[in-house]
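2024-03-11 09:14:02 INFO queue: dequeued item Acyl-CoA reductase-like NAD-dependent aldehyde dehydrogenase, len=471
2024-03-11 09:14:02 INFO validating residues
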Amino acid sequence: MSDTRLQTHLLDRVQAAPGEGREIPDAATRAVIGRAPVHGLADLDAAVARAKAAQPAWEALGHAERSGLLLAAADAIAANAEELAHLLSREQGKPLDGPNARFEVGACSAWLRTAATTPLEPEVVFDDGVVRAELHYRAIGVVGAIGPWNWPLMITIWQIGPALRMGDTVVVKPSEYTPLSVLALLAVLNEVLPPDVLIGVSGDREVGARLASHPDIGKVMFTGSTATGRRIVEGTVGNLARLTLELGGNDAGIVLPGADATAIAKDLFWGAFINTGQTCAALKRLYVHDSDYEEVLSALAEVAPGMPMGIGLEEGNVLGPLQNRKQFDIVSRLVEDARSRGARIVTGGSPATELGELFYPVTIVADVTDGVPLVDEEQFGPVLPVIRYTDIEDAIRSANRLDAGLGASVWGDREQARRVAARLQAGTVWINSHGGVHPMIPFGGVKGSGYGLEFGVEGLKAVAVPQVING
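2024-03-11 09:14:37 INFO prediction written
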């Protein structure tokens, strides 16, 4: 067991005073980690006012100086990486090893460096020798960043890095499930940044709703459920805040006839089960041609035992618990419903109570069809329904039939896969992989999975306002 004392320094800086705040449990052991501050609407209003007052001077620094400070902030993350990873592992549940806590903290540094150094030059959109029109991008003002509990640190950086780079100040409202690790990250960044450029407010849904509707917020960045995203859209009617919404996904994958099941099995596994399936752009329903169906099931089942699940601070584990009881209950309900309808449980299928209260094993479910809740609802956990198809047209229709459209994937011959990919209704379609993101490749959803782009040049533009200088 790793030493939990590694977390003490940052945790003591951000948690509430003794006897105050709200208890935050360890996702794996359910022991109390610490107490999160509980901020109210008055605290939020004060934070927005401070951020608004700090914004003009921050913008006036210019891109070069802001970029230098953000690079120094990325260095500060790296210097505190192990402590951040330990706190994240306990609060969120993801293990230190594998594509999990240490990976997430490392991604924070990488994404912040990319936001700091990606050029965004003025674009000449018209020049006839008499009139020259240039498109520039200016700061919006104050950005409200509302984050999720599944990748709390990395997604916070996705939201705040580009905004800070473009001259915006940011007020961050972390998830009620994972506030301590996010507040610790902000504390590290604020060792470098000027006062009030970046402020965290740890509150409930009422605080989040007020942040979205606040008259001094010019942009809202939100990652979370589609239902909450719709409420945020409604809340911005009064302030007309710009929006980037990364909402729920129920990503489909299609395995083409003749695909090498053994060769793709490990990538299929991680596409579905990264972060124990608690990822918006995870593979959540897999369509496999009848000729390869049993072979793909067997190949996936062979991968699962080699992926240890357990307490995140125990070295070697790569899968952890569900983060909270609500999500655990959703996963359990969907599996039991599928079982009652005659589904075949290939692996898993029952809570792993020997590991802890919220552990659910890797579960692969066969012989299900469209219309079953496990297929149609986003399970957001370590369960993958595998659906049989006989005609590629049917598979494409099935992949497109739901309102979700964050990601999708096609597996098999690359040229055939690209033709199928072009017909899928998703913001990103991966070929022979699923869910990988890159700080320079735009990412965003369609349909009920939201709108707006993040990452790279498009991500910088999204947290700025366009201005045409014409003359």
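2024-03-11 09:14:37 INFO annotate: The chain has two domains: 4-247+446-470, 251-431.
2024-03-11 09:14:38 INFO item closed
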